[in-house]
Amino acid sequence: MSQVNSAGTGIVDHSIAWLTTFSKVQMMDHMEARIVKLESVTEKILDRLEAVERDVAVIRANYVTKADLAMVESSLKVSIAAVESSLKVSIAAVESSLKVSIAALEATMLKWFVRTGIALAGLSIALSGLAFAAAKYIN
Protein backbone atom coordinates (compact mmCIF):
# COMPACT_ATOMS: atom_id res chain seq x y z
CA MET A 1 0.00 0.00 0.00
CA SER A 2 1.48 3.27 -0.99
CA GLN A 3 0.92 6.41 1.00
CA VAL A 4 -0.45 9.45 -0.76
CA ASN A 5 0.60 13.01 0.03
CA SER A 6 -1.29 16.21 -0.72
CA ALA A 7 0.10 16.45 -4.23
CA GLY A 8 -1.21 13.05 -4.97
CA THR A 9 2.14 11.40 -5.58
CA GLY A 10 3.16 8.39 -3.64
CA ILE A 11 5.76 8.93 -0.93
CA VAL A 12 7.08 5.48 -1.54
CA ASP A 13 7.44 6.17 -5.25
CA HIS A 14 9.38 9.35 -4.52
CA SER A 15 11.74 7.54 -2.15
CA ILE A 16 12.24 4.75 -4.68
CA ALA A 17 13.11 7.34 -7.31
CA TRP A 18 15.68 8.88 -4.97
CA LEU A 19 17.04 5.42 -4.18
CA THR A 20 17.23 4.61 -7.87
CA THR A 21 19.10 7.86 -8.50
CA PHE A 22 21.43 7.18 -5.60
CA SER A 23 21.87 3.66 -6.83
CA LYS A 24 22.66 4.89 -10.35
CA VAL A 25 25.30 7.29 -9.02
CA GLN A 26 26.73 4.61 -6.83
CA MET A 27 26.65 2.16 -9.72
CA MET A 28 28.42 4.68 -11.96
CA ASP A 29 31.12 5.17 -9.33
CA HIS A 30 31.47 1.42 -9.04
CA MET A 31 31.62 1.05 -12.83
CA GLU A 32 34.22 3.82 -13.09
CA ALA A 33 36.32 2.10 -10.43
CA ARG A 34 36.06 -1.17 -12.32
CA ILE A 35 37.01 0.54 -15.58
CA VAL A 36 40.06 2.12 -13.93
CA LYS A 37 41.04 -1.25 -12.51
CA LEU A 38 40.54 -2.94 -15.89
CA GLU A 39 42.65 -0.27 -17.59
CA SER A 40 45.41 -0.84 -15.05
CA VAL A 41 45.25 -4.59 -15.48
CA THR A 42 45.14 -4.18 -19.26
CA GLU A 43 48.33 -2.09 -19.15
CA LYS A 44 50.05 -4.78 -17.10
CA ILE A 45 48.83 -7.47 -19.49
CA LEU A 46 50.09 -5.47 -22.46
CA ASP A 47 53.50 -5.05 -20.79
CA ARG A 48 53.70 -8.77 -20.14
CA LEU A 49 52.57 -9.49 -23.71
CA GLU A 50 55.33 -7.25 -25.05
CA ALA A 51 57.86 -9.11 -22.90
CA VAL A 52 56.58 -12.45 -24.20
CA GLU A 53 56.74 -11.17 -27.78
CA ARG A 54 60.37 -10.10 -27.22
CA ASP A 55 61.19 -13.50 -25.76
CA VAL A 56 59.54 -15.25 -28.70
CA ALA A 57 61.47 -13.04 -31.11
CA VAL A 58 64.74 -14.02 -29.40
CA ILE A 59 63.74 -17.68 -29.51
CA ARG A 60 62.84 -17.44 -33.19
CA ALA A 61 66.14 -15.72 -33.91
CA ASN A 62 67.93 -18.72 -32.41
CA TYR A 63 65.96 -21.40 -34.25
CA VAL A 64 67.99 -24.03 -36.03
CA THR A 65 67.02 -24.57 -39.63
CA LYS A 66 67.17 -27.81 -41.58
CA ALA A 67 70.10 -26.39 -43.50
CA ASP A 68 71.93 -25.68 -40.23
CA LEU A 69 71.31 -29.23 -39.05
CA ALA A 70 72.45 -30.67 -42.38
CA MET A 71 75.65 -28.61 -42.19
CA VAL A 72 76.36 -29.79 -38.64
CA GLU A 73 75.58 -33.37 -39.63
CA SER A 74 77.98 -33.29 -42.58
CA SER A 75 80.66 -31.66 -40.42
CA LEU A 76 80.23 -34.37 -37.79
CA LYS A 77 80.40 -37.10 -40.43
CA VAL A 78 83.68 -35.69 -41.75
CA SER A 79 85.10 -35.36 -38.23
CA ILE A 80 84.04 -38.88 -37.28
CA ALA A 81 85.51 -40.29 -40.49
CA ALA A 82 88.82 -38.51 -39.80
CA VAL A 83 88.93 -39.81 -36.23
CA GLU A 84 88.01 -43.30 -37.40
CA SER A 85 90.78 -43.41 -40.02
CA SER A 86 93.27 -42.00 -37.51
CA LEU A 87 92.26 -44.67 -34.99
CA LYS A 88 92.61 -47.39 -37.61
CA VAL A 89 96.15 -46.22 -38.42
CA SER A 90 97.03 -46.00 -34.72
CA ILE A 91 95.58 -49.43 -33.99
CA ALA A 92 97.46 -50.93 -36.95
CA ALA A 93 100.72 -49.39 -35.69
CA VAL A 94 100.14 -50.70 -32.17
CA GLU A 95 99.20 -54.13 -33.53
CA SER A 96 102.37 -54.24 -35.64
CA SER A 97 104.48 -53.16 -32.68
CA LEU A 98 102.86 -55.81 -30.48
CA LYS A 99 103.50 -58.51 -33.07
CA VAL A 100 107.18 -57.55 -33.23
CA SER A 101 107.43 -57.45 -29.43
CA ILE A 102 105.69 -60.81 -29.05
CA ALA A 103 107.95 -62.38 -31.70
CA ALA A 104 111.04 -61.02 -29.93
CA LEU A 105 109.72 -62.31 -26.60
CA GLU A 106 109.08 -65.75 -28.11
CA ALA A 107 112.63 -65.87 -29.50
CA THR A 108 114.08 -64.81 -26.15
CA MET A 109 111.99 -67.36 -24.26
CA LEU A 110 112.96 -70.12 -26.71
CA LYS A 111 116.64 -69.24 -26.26
CA TRP A 112 116.22 -69.37 -22.48
CA PHE A 113 114.45 -72.72 -22.65
CA VAL A 114 117.19 -74.22 -24.85
CA ARG A 115 119.99 -72.77 -22.73
CA THR A 116 118.29 -73.88 -19.52
CA GLY A 117 117.83 -77.37 -20.97
CA ILE A 118 121.50 -77.54 -21.97
CA ALA A 119 122.57 -76.25 -18.56
CA LEU A 120 120.35 -78.78 -16.79
CA ALA A 121 121.66 -81.59 -18.98
CA GLY A 122 125.25 -80.56 -18.26
CA LEU A 123 124.48 -80.22 -14.58
CA SER A 124 122.85 -83.62 -14.45
CA ILE A 125 125.84 -85.18 -16.26
CA ALA A 126 128.21 -83.48 -13.85
CA LEU A 127 126.18 -84.61 -10.86
CA SER A 128 126.04 -88.15 -12.25
CA GLY A 129 129.81 -88.16 -12.68
CA LEU A 130 130.20 -86.78 -9.19
CA ALA A 131 127.87 -89.42 -7.82
CA PHE A 132 129.83 -92.17 -9.57
CA ALA A 133 133.09 -90.75 -8.30
CA ALA A 134 131.73 -90.55 -4.79
CA ALA A 135 130.49 -94.12 -5.07
CA LYS A 136 133.97 -95.25 -6.19
CA TYR A 137 135.65 -93.60 -3.27
CA ILE A 138 133.16 -94.97 -0.83
CA ASN A 139 133.57 -98.57 -2.04
Proportion of helical residues: over 70%
Tell me the β content: under 5%
- Segments where pLDDT lies below 50 for 5+ residues? none
Number of separate strands: 0
Transmembrane segments: 118-138
Keywords: Membrane, Transmembrane, Transmembrane helix
Protein name: DUF1640 domain-containing protein
Written description of the protein model:
The chain has 139 residues and is an all-alpha fold. It folds into two domains: 1-63; 68-139. 89% of the residues lie in helices and 0% in strands. The chain contains two helices and no strands. It is rod-shaped. The model has no long low-confidence stretch (mean pLDDT 86). The chain crosses the membrane at residues 118-138. This is DUF1640 domain-containing protein. It comes from Massilia violaceinigra. Keywords: Membrane, Transmembrane, Transmembrane helix.
Keywords:
mainly alpha; 2 domains; 2 helices; 89% helix; rod-shaped; transmembrane helix; transmembrane
Please give a quick description of this structure.
The protein has 139 residues and is mainly α. It has two helices and no strands.
Blueprint (SSEs and pairs):
Blueprint: H1 11-61, H2 66-138
